[in-house]
């Protein structure tokens, strides 16, 4: 999970919502991924998807049996689907996601017996640490947008004096 947290820091450095994922088989790290849908212009560029894609390339196989995925935030429905298609044995996630979590928070994709692959899910690992990284990111973003609005208001004030160079 510490490696997933480091990947989340990479997302944050890129200005993206800080979520990181690591795919391991036993003690071996196969791939890591960080969330970057904005920079990649790709709605599927979630940390889990990036790690799954990279791991499948390494394995030269779209199925990754016996692998475990560690991710700092509860996977969404898209990622849960990809995790099932890849036959991941176990998912370990950090913070719960009350808005899009598909491991019990909003829906529980893995509890549906009609979906034929059964991935073991463990949630809430380093939950407060993983959640704190997200909370501080959003707090920082709200602060920056407040400052931008204040600067815009100040700019409007300056422009309201006709004839003066800005
Ligand atoms: Zn996702």
TrEMBL record:
Similarity comment: family membership: Belongs to the cytidine and deoxycytidylate deaminase family. ADAT2 subfamily.
Function of the molecule: Catalyzes the deamination of adenosine to inosine at the wobble position 34 of tRNA(Arg2).
PANTHER family xrefs: CYTOSINE DEAMINASE FAMILY MEMBER, TRNA-SPECIFIC ADENOSINE DEAMINASE
Domain CMP/dCMP-type deaminase: 1-106
Gene Ontology biological-process entries: tRNA wobble adenosine to inosine editing
Top EC class, one word: hydrolase
Catalytic residues in the record: 48
Keywords, ordered alphabetically: Hydrolase, Metal-binding, tRNA processing, Zinc
Name recorded for this polypeptide: tRNA-specific adenosine deaminase
Reactions catalysed according to its record: adenosine(34) in tRNA + H2O + H(+) = inosine(34) in tRNA + NH4(+)
Gene Ontology MF terms in the entry: tRNA-specific adenosine-34 deaminase activity; zinc ion binding
Cofactor(s) named in the record: Zn(2+)
Transmembrane segments: none
Pfam family, one: dCMP_cyt_deam_1
Lineage of source species: Bacteria, Pseudomonadati, Pseudomonadota, Betaproteobacteria, Burkholderiales
EC number, as in UniProt: 3.5.4.33
Subunit structure: Homodimer.
Positions contributing to Zn(2+) binding: 46, 76, 79
Cofactor binding note from Swiss-Prot or TrEMBL: Binds 1 zinc ion per subunit.
Superkingdom classification of source: Bacteria
Organism encoding this protein: Paraburkholderia graminis (strain ATCC 700544 / DSM 17151 / LMG 18924 / NCIMB 13744 / C4D1M)
């Amino acid at each position: 999970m510490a490696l997933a947290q480091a990947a989340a820091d990479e997302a944050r450095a890129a200005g993206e919502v800080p979520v990181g994922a690591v795919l391991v088989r036993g003690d071996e790290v196969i791939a890591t991924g960080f969330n970057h849908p904005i920079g990649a212009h790709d709605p599927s560029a979630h940390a889990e998807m990036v790690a799954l894609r990279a791991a499948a390339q390494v394995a030269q196989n779209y199925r990754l049996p016996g692998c475990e995925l560690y991710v700092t935030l509860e996977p969404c429905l898209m990622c849960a689907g990809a995790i099932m298609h890849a036959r991941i044995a176990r998912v370990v996630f950090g913070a719960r996601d009350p808005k899009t979590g598909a491991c019990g928070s909003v829906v529980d994709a893995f509890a549906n017996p009609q979906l034929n692959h059964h991935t073991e899910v463990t949630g809430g690992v380093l939950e407060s640490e993983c959640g704190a990284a997200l909370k501080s990111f959003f707090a920082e973003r709200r602060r920056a947008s407040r400052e931008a609005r204040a600067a815009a208001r100040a700019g409007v004030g300056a422009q309201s004096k006709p004839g003066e160079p800005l």
